[in-house]
Amino acid sequence: MTAQIIDGNALSRQVRADVATRAASLTARGITPGLAVILVGENPASQVYVRNKVKACADAGLHSVLERYDADLSEAALLDRIAALNADPAIHGILVQLPLPRHIDDHKVIEAISPAKDVDGFHIASAGALMVGEVGFKACTPYGCMKMLESIGMANLRGKHAVVIGRSNIVGKPMAMMLLAANATVTVCHSGTADLGVFTRQADIVVAAVGKRNVLTADMVKPGAVVIDVGMNRNDEGKLCGDVDYAGVSTVAGWITPVPGGVGPMTITMLLVNTLEAAERLLPA
Ligand code: NAP
User: Fold this and answer.
1) pLDDT at 285
2) Is 222 marked active-site?
3) Per the confidence metrics, is the pTM higher than 0.85?
4) 96-126, pLDDT tens digit by residue?
5) How far apart are CA 170 and CA 223, in angstroms?
6) Nearest CA residue ID for atom 19, ligand 1
7) How far is the centre of ligand 1, averaged over its atoms, from the C-alpha of 264 (Å)?
8) Residue to probe by mutation, ligand 1, list 163, 189, 195, 232, most atoms within 8 Å of CB
9) pLDDT, averaged across the chain
10) Are 176 and 164 in contact (CB under 8 A)?
């Protein structure tokens, strides 16, 4: 079997076109959705990420501001800035690019963002809303994975077994909650899982969110399964690759996401969706 590709770039274009249409209609009603992105320090990867996020906003007709601060910005000054953005009516979403310099407590900073503007979905209120099925903001990377499943007709996962490899607060755990909400039976594996293959071979859907190359190989995948690769690693030639042995797994899986061009673009796309929705929620019911 040769797996069909779930093309994150193509799906992103479709979703972003819809965001642009809805943003234009909101703007016509006097509300331009606005995102504030805060970058502290000079982390080169973070600089690329924030540039891409700001550009994606501009392309979709969203207002965005990028605030850059030196690495020695104090935690108190950052918290003051977040308080000001919480009160700014032109800003509907606030994103603080992680990682922050070591002297700043990530958790304190994320919790300072108003839950109504938490478009990254990392606030405890967003995680809690996801847990109990209330309206909040979904973390962008797993939300993008769910959109990818929806795009191949897998919105309702009743009767399906999904295995998530990884249990971080920003990917693995919210991914598991979203799959559960879509009625899948969910298994979460991690570094303490004794034999990963025992679980992945039973799965109709495998989501790999580990950060290590070749965590998932062809012998670990059920024929026809859907494989979603969240990982971002570098191979021996320095090229971007995922957690999945793409060449091998493609011969067994039914569907697969590539790296690059898979989950990565969808993550930014869902940030746009969350920012738009933050603004739409201000409209009278
Ligand atoms: P993380 O916080 O380091 O979590 C990694 C998870 O993998 C942990 O739960 C860990 O288990 C588990 N793990 C480690 N080795 C394992 C093994 N051999 N077998 C099974 N599980 C193992 O990473 P993260 O932030 O979730 O990110 C994961 C990957 O996704 C990274 O490559 C990251 O760059 C990428 N990512 C991509 C996007 C995107 O937009 N494409 C967004 C976010 C993250 P323990 O909990 O037991 O330690």
Assistant:
1) 76
2) no
3) yes
4) 999 999 999 999 999 999 999 999 999 999 9
5) 29
6) 191
7) 14
8) 232
9) 97
10) yes
Question: What mean pLDDT is predicted for residues 241-249?
Answer: 98
Distance 210 CA to ligand 1 centre (A): 3
E strand segments, 155-230: 161-165, 185-189, 205-208, 226-229
pLDDT digits (tens, 9 = 90+) for 29-50: 999 999 999 999 999 999 999 9
Q: What is the pLDDT of residue 283?
A: 86
Fold match, 30-115 / 140-264: yes
Classified as helix, coil or strand, 124 is helix
pLDDT of residue 160: 98
Q: Which CATH class is domain 140-264?
A: alpha beta
Task: Report residue 145's pLDDT band, with 50, 70 and 90 as the boundaries.
Answer: very high
Omega prior to 260 cis, within 30 of 0: yes
Domain ranges for the chain, please list them: 30-115, 140-264
Q: Pick the catalytic residue from 120, 204, 229, 245.
A: 120
CA angle 24, 126, 110 (to 5 degrees): 95
Q: Given pLDDT bands bounded at 50, 70 and 90, which one contains residue 134? A: very high
In the CATH scheme, what is the code of domain 30-115?
3.40.50.10860
- Whether residue 97 lies in the annotated active site: yes
CA distance 29 to 278: 15
Please name the residue whose Cα sits nearest to atom 39 of ligand 1.
Answer: 264
